[in-house]
């Protein structure tokens, strides 16, 4: 059985923008199709006079961000939100503008905020923050909460998503909920929650991967799962595995990147390595190099021939599940 190619796949994303030449990195918005809209709040005109961010659409997504950490420690859940208004537009709105994001987790509420006095520079307790301030609007692209340091891991459910905005200590909008105007008085609205809960997966939905034996060593296929967006795929090979192909390739919607891998003549034990994408995907692959060793390296009759092994379709879905479970168990074992 050792002759068959064994590999396990776990999938996740990685913000490798720093590895790319300027001008070819993709924007985080390419991943919008993977997000889940959790809140839809009224679009009001009241705050344009009173000041304070007007909450409209709010989404939850997942991504890996290497600026938080490499490997699984950089996997995060993030908020995306469209907040209308900008400090300075109203004399009534002087002071600090604040947007507070909350969801419930099995470890208790996770509360983070974004604060500003000029609408361009921000103070935050999110683990990473990507904003795009526009004319009278703040696009919160990714307000990220790392999973592991906050007691979160794939498989857990988070719920009760809510956002509140303030000027100073005065509440100016909330979602779900209407528009507060004076103390407990608020203008009712059609604001609503769109989901009861969101189950964390880790950043594995950006791409999938498989490995097959090839005469030269092994062939790694990485397929983008995006229907519309584009992304760069990066492979981070173990030290003793090489490729003459570029290790960073742009793939379009449903596109595939193929890497021909050269394996060491004296294979070591199985090795894990990451496949990442520049907009936040990360997958961990487990390459059992022993499964690819030359014909004469194993006793005769111990398994299928190399030719047979090559012809056996690999069950990547099963292996992927196994790897994800292993990953989950590791996370649960972490206090
Ligand atoms: Ca609103
Ligand atoms: Ca509201």
Describe this structure as you would to a colleague.
The structure is a single chain. The chain is mostly beta strands and 335 residues long. The protein has two domains: 6-18 and 203-333, no CATH class; 19-199, no CATH class. It is 9% helix and 45% strand. It is built from three helices and 23 strands. The chain has a six-stranded antiparallel sheet with strand order 8-9-4-3-2-14, with no helix packed on it. Strands 5, 6, 7, 10, 11 and 15 form a six-stranded antiparallel sheet that branches. The chain has a five-stranded antiparallel sheet with strand order 1-23-22-18-20. β22 (271-277) and β23 form a beta hairpin. The model is unreliable at 1-23 and 293-335 (pLDDT under 50). It binds calcium ion (2 copies). One calcium ion binds at residues 41-42, 55, 173-175, 177-179, 189, 191.
């Amino acid at each position: 059985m050792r002759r068959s190619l064994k590999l396990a796949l776990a999938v996740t994303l990685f913000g490798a923008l720093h590895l790319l030449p300027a001008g070819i990195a993709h924007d985080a918005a390419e991943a919008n199709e993977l997000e889940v809209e959790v809140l839809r709040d009224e679009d009001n005109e009241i705050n344009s006079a009173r000041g304070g961010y007007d909450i409209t659409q709010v989404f939850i997504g997942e991504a890996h961000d290497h600026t938080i950490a490499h490997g699984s420690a950089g996997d995060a859940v993030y908020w995306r939100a469209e907040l209308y208004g900008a400090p300075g537009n109203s004399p009534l709105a002087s002071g600090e503008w604040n947007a507070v994001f909350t969801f419930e987790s099995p470890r208790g509420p996770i509360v983070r905020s974004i604060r500003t006095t000029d609408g361009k520079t921000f103070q935050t307790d999110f683990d990473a923050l990507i904003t795009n301030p526009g004319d009278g609007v703040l696009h919160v692209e990714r307000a990220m909460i790392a999973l592991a340091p906050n007691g979160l891991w794939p498989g857990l459910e988070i719920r009760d998503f809510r956002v509140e905005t303030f000027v100073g200590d005065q509440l100016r909008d909330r979602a779900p909920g209407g528009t507060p105007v004076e103390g407990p008085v608020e203008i009712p609205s059609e604001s609503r929650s769109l989901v009861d809960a969101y189950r964390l997966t880790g950043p594995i939905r950006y791409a999938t991967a498989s490995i097959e034996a090839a005469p030269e060593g092994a062939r790694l296929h990485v397929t983008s799962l995006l229907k519309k967006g584009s992304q760069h795929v990066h492979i981070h090979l173990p030290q003793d595995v090489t490729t003459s192909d570029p290790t960073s390739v742009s793939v379009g919607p449903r596109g595939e990147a193929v890497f021909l891998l050269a394996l060491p003549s004296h294979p070591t034990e199985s090795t894990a390595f990451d496949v990442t994408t520049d907009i936040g995907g990360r997958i961990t692959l487990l390459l059992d190099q022993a499964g690819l060793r030359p014909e004469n390296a194993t006793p005769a009759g111990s398994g299928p021939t190399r030719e047979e092994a090559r012809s056996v379709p690999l069950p990547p879905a099963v292996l992927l599940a196994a790897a994800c479970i292993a990953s989950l168990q590791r996370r649960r074992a972490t206090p």
